[in-house]
């Protein structure tokens, strides 16, 4: 089946993976070539098999789908990422798309539609759930093209302030009394929402916009 669309599944719920695999495997033109239960194993799998499409959940035990998407696109640029999740909140949608996701669909999608999404992703065609598309349209219409601290949640703003003080993830985790994995997800969202490449640029943004006062 050389012309088959190759797909990997990344979701920490085994029952979800089993269900998706069972359905997609009934399609002669789709070949599920691997599964992973989290970010680390998922990125390694993508690097190893370089599939046409990766179906990625957003919330996983060892990471988040935004970071996973970004890393997959780095290790396997040919792989199109389709976010398959239960969450349509704009705080997830925009960062996921900025991280490189091509399509964003919800888990209430039926099997036939999902198979079509996979086929379309393989040829570079995007599909957005209607509610997700609504977030994108509103973003384009009502929000300034320049990033704004208004895009950040209260916790992400806290993380930005601490980043601007030069703290690393372990120090941020200690100050906020959360895990480093949680901090990693917040930092990824901050970078994506502010449209910056690294922590230094995020710190400069914080100083420039008055979130914190630039050190002398």
UniProtKB/TrEMBL annotation:
PROSITE patterns: HTH_LUXR_1, HTH_LUXR_2, RESPONSE_REGULATORY
Keywords assigned by UniProt, alphabetized: DNA-binding, Phosphoprotein
Pfam families attached to this UniProt entry: GerE, Response_reg
Residue list for modification 4-aspartylphosphate: 57
HTH luxR-type domain: residues covered: 145-210
Keyword DNA-binding on entry: yes
Keyword check for DNA-binding: yes
Response regulatory domain location: 6-122
PANTHER family linked to this entry: TWO-COMPONENT RESPONSE REGULATOR
Name the record gives this protein: NarL family two-component system response regulator LiaR
Organism listed in the record: Pseudonocardia parietis
């Amino acid at each position: 089946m050389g012309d088959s669309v190759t797909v990997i599944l990344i979701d920490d719920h085994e029952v979800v993976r089993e269900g998706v695999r069972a359905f997609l495997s009934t399609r002669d033109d789709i070949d599920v070539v691997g599964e992973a239960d989290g970010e680390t194993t998922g990125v390694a799998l993508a690097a190893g098999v370089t599939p046409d499409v990766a179906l990625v959940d957003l919330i996983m035990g060892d990471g988040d789908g935004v970071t996973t998407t970004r890393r997959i696109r780095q290790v396997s640029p040919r792989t199109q990422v389709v976010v398959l999740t239960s969450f349509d909140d704009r705080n997830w949608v925009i960062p996921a798309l900025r991280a490189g996701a091509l399509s964003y669909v919800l888990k209430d999608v039926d099997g036939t539609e999902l198979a079509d999404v996979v086929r379309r992703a393989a040829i570079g065609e995007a599909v957005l759930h209607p509610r997700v598309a609504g977030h994108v349209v509103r973003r384009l219409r009502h929000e300034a093209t320049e990033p704004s601290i208004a895009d950040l949640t209260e916790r992400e703003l806290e993380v930005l302030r601490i980043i601007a003080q030069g703290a690393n993830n372990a120090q941020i985790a200690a100050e906020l009394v959360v895990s480093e994995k949680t901090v990693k997800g917040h930092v990824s969202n901050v970078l994506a929402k502010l449209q910056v490449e690294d922590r230094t640029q995020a710190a400069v943004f914080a100083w420039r916009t008055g979130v914190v006062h630039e050190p002398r």
